[in-house]
Amino acid sequence: MLTRPETAGTITFAEDRAPAAFSRLALPANATMILAVSGGGDSAALLHLARRHFTAHRPDVRLLAATVDHGLRAASADEAHHVARTCDTLGIDHVTLRWAGAKPGTGVQSAARHARYALLTELAVRQQSAVVLTGHTEDDQAETVAMRAARADDGRGLAGIDEAALSARRVWFVRPLLDLGRQELRDWLTARGHDWIDDPSNDDRRFERVRVRADLARDPARRNVLLTGAAQRMERRRRDAMDGAACLDDRTIWQKTGDGSRFMPASAASLPAAGPTAAMAAELAWTGRLPRIADAARAERTLAFCRTAPNGTALTLAGCRLQKTGGAVTIAPEPRNRRAAGDRCFETLLPSADWPLADALARLHGAPPFPPPPFTKS
Asked: What is the pLDDT of residue 290?
């Protein structure tokens, strides 16, 4: 359903705050940047705010809007056409991407999200674009943390949505509106006379996110607690990743061996626990061919083995086989794990907070480097 603004209200902070996020992007001259635009309020605000900023400050940057038609609702094709017409009016190139094939009977929102990221990543690669902007907001952050808390997620998950994430080791997805609220963006659209599309699935209580959204709307104090806690955990996650990367880079602690590595626990004994834990979580993911960094519990269990197990002892964990000999621990893929070194590791989205760990792993194992987050150095 199309929502048209009824009044030209007061311009909100959105117009002042969003450009700060855009200005941090380190884009080469004449770069192509993709905007993920569904036509909903969040992505419509992204479209208009990005056009406003880049037209004024980086006119050399080509904006390409992309709408993913999931084919889940009869109106989705018309909504994509509406976005295309809006982009034509704004002088922005537009493309519609279609999620083809059979759709799952359950877990539709999760499957649609994975399909959306895959399609946008493929488009970015074709367009030689290193950055895709998405319209995630502060409300998305609070909802995500609430859902993870309900599933008793560990501290990493409770850090919430990162400001950027690397897809397929090639394309950065950046969320410049993550510090702005959903209503604030709609107020700005209304004040500027821009319309947007209301997706009826956003009111369908069969979906967990919709139910959580309603709960948080009734409890703003809890929403604020979730956001504050997420920001604190994300900052701690960034610090731990930096400490872990330093640990992986220290060749008195970690060395490459064949398709795995050798860890010297005595050399890491004097370090604060966070660094070796983050490093081990990352190394288990690389050598065990996991899609993401291992959880802290597995890393801590592995470190306990490395420190206390007698020589000659072995442990199989997270797709790895660990063998302690002469005080050092060799970490190798378990025999049944036949994937190539590093295969699957970070094939899902790699949060920018974890990038130092990923790049340190690449140095340790002699693999190609991971492209750095696309931000200017502060």
From this structure: 87
Q: Label the pairing between strands 131-133 and 62-69.
A: unpaired
Architecture of the 2-218 domain: 3-Layer(aba) Sandwich (3.40)
> What average pLDDT does this structure show over 116-131?
97
Is position 23 annotated in a ligand binding site?
no
Amino acid at 68: V
pLDDT at site 105: 79
**DSSP codes of every residue in 20-81:** HHHHTB---TT-EEEEE--SSHHHHHHHHHHHHHHHHH-TTSEEEEEEEE-S-STTHHHHHH
Rounded to a whole number of angstroms, the CA Rg of the chain reads 23
The answer on whether 267 is annotated among ligand-binding residues is no
Question: Minimal CA–CA distance to 312: which of 298, 301, 328?
Answer: 328
* 38 belongs to an annotated ligand binding site: yes
Chain-centroid distance of CA 295 in Å reads 17
User: pLDDT tens for residues 267-277?
Assistant: 999 999 999 99
Residue with tokens 């002469």, as numbered in its chain: 326
Establish whether 43 is an annotated binding residue.
Answer: yes
Percent of the chain residues past pLDDT 90, beyond the cut: 74
pLDDT, tens only, 178-221: 999 999 999 999 999 999 998 777 777 778 888 999 999 999 99
Domain ranges of the chain: 2-218, 247-365
Instruction: Establish whether 42 is an annotated binding residue.
Output: yes
**Side-chain-side CA neighbours of residue 329 (13 Å):** 27
